[in-house]
Amino acid sequence: MTVTIKEVQGAAAALGGAIVNTPCLHSRTLSEVSGAEVYLKFENLQFTAAFKERGALNKLLSLTAQQRAAGVIAASAGNHAQGLAYHARRLGIPAVIVMPRFTPNIKVERTRSHAAEVVLHGDNFDAAQAHAQSLAAARGLTPVHPYDDEKVIAGQGTLVLEMLATCPQLETLIVPIGGGGLIAGCAIAAKALKPGIEIIGVQTERYPSMVCAVQGQQAKFGTSTIAEGIAVRTPGTLTLPVVRELVDDLLLVSEGALEQAIVMLLEIEKTVVEGAGAAGLAALLAYPQRFKGKQVGLILCGGNIDLLMLAEIIERGMVRSGRLTRLLVEVSDLPGSLAKVTACMATANANIVDVYHQRRFTHLPLQSTTVEFVVQTRDHAHADEIIAALTAAGFPARLNSGGE
Prior knowledge:
This protein has about 400 residues and is an alpha/beta fold. It has helices spanning about 5-15, 30-35, 50-60, 65-70, 80-90, 105-115, 125-140, 150-165, 180-195, 210-215, 240-245, 255-270, 280-285, 290, 305-320, 335-345, 380-390, and strands spanning about 25, 35-40, 70-75, 95-100, 115-120, 140-145, 170-175, 200-205, 250-255, 295-300, 325-330, 350-360, 370-375, 395-400. The chain has three domains: about 5-50 and about 150-315, 3-Layer(aba) Sandwich (Rossmann fold); about 55-145, 3-Layer(aba) Sandwich (Rossmann fold), CATH 3.40.50.1100; about 320-400, 2-Layer Sandwich (Alpha-Beta Plaits). The strands form three sheets. The chain has a six-stranded mixed beta sheet. A four-stranded parallel beta sheet has the order 5-4-3-6, with helices on both faces. The longest helix is centred in the middle third of the chain and has 17 residues, at about 150-165. The mean pLDDT is about 90.
């Protein structure tokens, strides 16, 4: 591995003016919530909404004239694809992108919008990568690997130069890991500039490839994850040794933690991130004692999330926080009963979103029925207040948390 701080600094000089020097800002609210002093690097504000532009452009700038004329090819779940396609078009280099078949539509369409030829192949990154390799050989294209390339690694490390220039007091960096390009570049740069800084890597529990590789274990993978940008089954051959040598710890986070982090960043910071972009905050929230009192830098590495997925995550977040509640209420099947129930809810400041009323599928006596309400509430305590008010008014109520 020949990537050093010199190569990262050289990449920063080469990328100057073509990449956004994204802000790294202190979050007062997240600091209060987590117990750490939290600084956010907003890489979701790059033109293609992800840090991947850095490594992709650094690689493109290193190509010979003959390689530029023939074109480049890459396999990518989306962000590397967009970054490569955008800068390839800007430099007049033909680009072919191979993407897994189930890549979110927003990433596919945005890649095509940059004039790249998109090939959908395989069910995961590894299958797409294998197909890209065969196309590269057949068509004489130069592969631009999303993480296992020295120029790419050096380019990704440039964001740490910016972070430490803005926030030199940082003690810990929490970095999402897929194949390891980002964390390898960050670790090389950060440890050279500030040897005592702590580098923590984060993967999703469903795709723990780097964690298992470092620990010498056989990885087991889930069928899917909302952090598809870091859903990589095989760590890079260049990046794995760097992680072993320079990364201080590796953590795993659940899908629920990722969802919570996405919602918090949207609500608190008013910024949209994808699952991978939320991994750092998810780890901070899942392991609070690990980071308590430290100056912590989080990299919001990407913001390309499917809007339908985001909407579902927001609703699920509202359920978890008690702001969207399902109640089952027993009422007499008589005229006016439903009106009395809704009036009682209004008095308790519950806003009714949906009502489902059925008479047939119930074990209650005849002339009684169960009505399901979906209501907007302040929190779990408010839901308990509504249940108590309904029950006191003669309408036994309970939470419907099991899909009754």
